[in-house]
Amino acid sequence: MQNISSLTLVLTERCNFSCPYCQQLKGKNTLKIDAIKVFLNFLQPQLEKEVWLGFYGGEPLLAWPLIEKTVAYLRKNRKSKFHFSLTTNGSLLKEGHILFLKENSFKLLMSYDGLAQFRRDKNSVSAVEKALKSLQKLYPQGYAINSVFTPATVSLLADSMTALMKQGHQRLQYTLDLSVPWLANDLLTLANELDRLAEFGSDHFQKNGRRPLLNFNSDAEADSKGVFACFAGRDRLALLPDNTVWGCYLFYDLLGHAAENPDYEKYCFGKLPGFIGAGKKNRTVAANYHDLRQDYFFTAKKNLCSLCPELEYCSICPVVAALATSCLGIIPDWVCRIRQVNDKIHALIARSN
Ligand code: SF4
Ligand code: SF4
Q: Of the candidates 198, 223, 248, which is a domain's last residue?
């Protein structure tokens, strides 16, 4: 394993929402501050000078004291410089939290689906909108909004994202739920929605000189060219609420309750005490992650990604794909078709820039 530059603490399995597309394992496990300290102390010699530490859940605000205690601990004991991030559904976010996050320069990712939010939890809309107003007032540069769309909600994508742009949010992105099938009609709707969104984004830039939509950032797209590799278990690790250690927190959602699956043994570093004691096993598990590269993947129809003309533009998270195909390294066919829709939109955006 190389030096570590990214850590995730999944504080709790508990969540106050039950979103239809959420793949996170739900349960009652919550980390303890002592386990977090042991994990951070053990890794200290392997940490880079700058480390990204992400707090995640479940809903991490349900374990807010753990965030305060971890930050206080690292402020006193750190040898590396820590950059903090927090991913939250925002429904419990109050001004006091925002001031703490600002004081500690957190990057906040608000998971908010805009016009599609009612499908997650219709009672949450007013609470999240209130939190977004507080963020705009108190910490406008510190947050981004991520909206997830599924085949059932994709027809709301353009209107939803444009509404958020009109409200003046500075950093927005949409994510598509790739773990469920996208049929031909869904893809037509997606193409139409992205077309409308690209047009609005271009008008917005002409009028305001800003491009808040991160998906349409052509620089980021150009930077991402190259054969993609998953960096789980290489420069990053995650501590999960049941005290297991994984190369990336997403593996827990796929395998955490499937200890009988051979992939559990292959990708899990074990419970924290074992992880700390097991030098050789850790090296073996870390090596297993090295095969997770786009050119080693293939589609459900057995087309090899290494032979695909899109290879250098494609970066599919193997866990997200496996949530659909049940097999790491196999990509569902609709992902390639979504890739083609995206390419057309990006070509259109590039021409209009
Ligand atoms: S478009 Fe499909 S086949 Fe091509 S690299 Fe991406 S996932 Fe693989
Ligand atoms: S590609 Fe997926 S599994 Fe790999 S590090 Fe990124 S989010 Fe984690």
A: 223
